[in-house]
Amino acid sequence: MSGKEQSITDADFDAHTGPRRATTTSKGAIQLAVPASDEGPPQGVSAEDIAALAAGVTGEVLRPGDGGYAAECATFNLAITHKPAVVVGAAEPADVQAAVRFATAHGLAVAVLATGHQAIVPADGAVLITTRRMSGITVDEASHRAVVQAGATAQQVVDAAEPFGLAPIVGSSPSVGVVGFTLGGGLSPTFGRPFGWAADYVHAIEVVTADGLLRRATAQEEPELFWALRGSRSNMGVVTALELDLHDVTRLYGGGLFFSGEDTASVMHAYQRFTASVPEELTSSIALLRLADAPSVPKLLRGTFTLHVRIAYLGTTAEGERLLAPLRQAAPVLLDTVGDMPLTDFASIHQDPADPMLFREWTTMLDQFSPETVDAIVELAGPRADQPVEYVEVRHLGGALGRRTGPPSAVGNRDATFAVWLMNLGPPTEGDPQQAYAQRVLERVQPWSTGHTYLNFTSSDPTPARVRQAYSPETYTRLRAAKSVYDPGNVFRLNQNIPPGGDA
């Protein structure tokens, strides 16, 4: 792959993502006359129909019982098991078009799967499109941009950009899909404060909408679709590629500070004071961890209650040392991994699990993180608390996340200064105390909440009410109007669904 190409033009974008399809005519496309049913697949999808689909697809087409079907449908979050009527392992945009047209012709819903970190709703009886075969990345050094196909992961894009001294905005996990992360807004615990939301740096999107057309959306071409795609994930169609900005970053002053859970109050109050004054080049979070005594857990953390402060700073090591001094002095440090590091090692900051696992998550956004907020969290998640979930985390937002740095989009939460995020590993135990506990925490921090949530952290509760909370009323209404244009039958509903038209 050559990164030393000319500036990326419309024609270049098409070459990277597959054959361009006409977007000015509906000839040959399946038109949506009747909304698909939520009651499972209708009768009449025959073996001949599946064979005809397979004949027109470059990638894989699999049905229940076929070899490779379960592996094709597998998700990183094992809370969801997909059992679609047919799964299409797309190898190019034309495969996505064929799958969408097949689904609408047979009255089936469509779901899309890249890595499945944000597995939402089972795709039972639907058409599932997997995009992992579409993982091409082209870096243009001159324009500081990349074209990223739908199945590419964060680590793949980081590694592709690194030889040119460039980097994308990434989250905490190297195996998260870049497209899903970005379309949900792209809240980065590594680059959030200095650069803002990843969605703000998208210049062009190629997407297959419910009519089976492959469209190119930019601020000038299909501007309403471009606005809606950035912030609504898969509600408007199946994205096959993004063109996005890269940044001049090759290294970080980053890593983690680990403290005993017994020091929760002193460390969290020190963290509150720390976040009140740090420059926006520094992004951080603090997590209260109660991890199992298991081989997959680092030995220091097995079966213990610890605090993990995560640091990602774009300034010098000397300045980073000065800024972190009050945290290091707050309590005895069990382990200190913070130091100068190459950006390619970004995953070592948060140390997210590398293997598929079952998890649930809950979140809310805060407009302030005061000493009183700290006291509330210590009360519910500190050393004397009965905390049945593994993670309670506070992420520092603000900085560039509070500003719009690109064309207008549906991404919200620019008024939030912190996020509270909880995660439970494994299935609920009897009576589901994990859910009850999460609700108690969210209610306890309500006095400091903006009243909104973050779309990418709603996988465990993608109810209409929670999805609404990711947007302002005006944005949600506008998204529903866009949905009525691009997916009037709500074919793309197996997600954090935004229904078309009418009342929710």
3D structure, described in words:
The radius of gyration is 23 Å and the shape is globular. The protein contains 15 helices and 17 strands. It has helices at 10-17, 47-55, 69-73, 93-105, 154-161, 178-183, 192-195, 223-232, 264-275, 317-328, 347-350, 371-381, 433-444, 464-468, 473-486; strands at residues 60-62, 86-89, 110-113, 127-130, 137-140, 145-149, 202-208, 214-217, 238-245, 251-260, 282-290, 305-313, 333-336, 339-342, 359-366, 391-396, 418-425. Helix 8 (223-232) crosses helix 15 and helix 9 packs antiparallel against helix 12 (371-381). The strands form three sheets. Strands 10, 11, 12, 13, 14, 15, 16 and 17 form an eight-stranded antiparallel sheet that branches.
Our Rg estimate from Cα atoms comes to: 23 Å
Helical region count? Answer: 15
Biggest β-sheet strands, sense, barrel: 8 strands, antiparallel
What value does the average pLDDT take? 90
Number of strands: 17
Coarse structural class? alpha+beta
Low-confidence blocks of residues = 1-42
Straight-line N-to-C gap? 46 Å
How much of the sequence lies in strands comes to: 15-25%
Q: Helix content range of the residues, please? A: 25-40%
**Which geometry do the CA atoms define?**
globular
Quick overview:
The chain has helices at 10-17, 47-55, 69-73, 93-105, 154-161, 178-183, 192-195, 223-232, 264-275, 317-328, 347-350, 371-381, 433-444, 464-468, 473-486; strands at residues 60-62, 86-89, 110-113, 127-130, 137-140, 145-149, 202-208, 214-217, 238-245, 251-260, 282-290, 305-313, 333-336, 339-342, 359-366, 391-396, 418-425.
